TrEMBL record:
Molecular function GO labels: cellulase activity
Protein name: Endoglucanase, putative
Signal peptide positions on this chain: 1-16
The family this protein is said to belong to: Belongs to the glycosyl hydrolase 12 (cellulase H) family.
Keyword Lyase: no
GO terms for biological process, alphabetical: polysaccharide catabolic process
Top-level taxon of the source organism: Eukaryota
PANTHER family the record matches: BLR1656 PROTEIN, XYLOGLUCAN-SPECIFIC ENDO-BETA-1,4-GLUCANASE A
Organism: Phytophthora infestans (strain T30-4) (Potato late blight agent)
Lineage: Eukaryota, Sar, Stramenopiles, Oomycota, Peronosporomycetes
Length: 205
């Protein structure tokens, strides 16, 4: 499960077995509009486990703060296959990265599970060479990795290690088809030979 970009003063809550449910939707690509966000069920790997199922629900929305959950009973698909990319996606104007000075954000998350889970929690940002163009880069910051979840990597080793806010991060680089993927670190901390041009434009999910 991957939680794409949640921007502004934001709180996101995710639980494998939520204590309550509001406005749940369970279709493969069902979604709901919630203020500045679109919450997606995005059961991407449904065909790999047709009996597995998944539901996502909106719990609350208060200004720029959103709370939501997702739940699933089981997963018997391939261990290497992604079950879903359930996410709360921010609605935003398409702009070049050079015009973005900061992206203040806060995320809170909780997982409840039986000890057998492979998942991550992440911010996710996509860019393209031109506004509305084909995706060229994906930038992720993983806040958690459970059960052996691993980022895309061409070598199996980080290309750089950095410390942010007193926390150590490893930066990995890999490919998802034609999209170059950086995981763990912001673009201004990338090595000189692995950068995302500031002329790149943010692109919607």
């Amino acid at each position: 499960m991957k939680l794409p970009l949640v921007i502004a003063a934001t709180a996101a809550t995710v639980a494998a077995f939520p204590a309550f449910a509001k406005d749940e939707f369970c279709g493969q690509y069902d979604s709901i509009q919630a203020g500045d966000y679109i919450v997606h069920n995005n059961l991407w790997g449904q065909d790999n486990d047709k009996a597995g199922g998944q539901c996502t629900g909106l719990d609350s929305i208060d200004g720029s703060t959103i709370a939501w959950h997702m739940s699933f009973p089981s997963w018997v698909g391939d261990n290497w296959q992604v079950k879903s990319y359930a996410n709360a996606a921010l609605k935003f104007n398409l702009v070049q990265l050079s015009s973005v000075k900061s992206i203040p954000t806060t995320m809170e998350y909780t997982y409840k599970y039986d000890g057998n889970i492979i998942t991550n929690v992440a911010y996710d940002l996509f860019t393209s060479p031109s506004i509305g163009g084909e995706t060229a880069y994906e930038l992720m910051v993983w806040l958690a990795a459970l059960g052996g979840a691993w980022p895309l990597t061409t070598t199996g080793q980080p290309i750089k290690s950095v410390k942010l806010g007193g926390v150590d991060f490893n930066l990995y680089q890999g490919w998802n088809n034609k999209t170059k993927v950086f995981t763990y670190q912001f673009f201004d901390e990338l090595p000189a030979d692995n950068t995302i041009e500031t002329t790149q434009a943010r692109t919607p999910l």
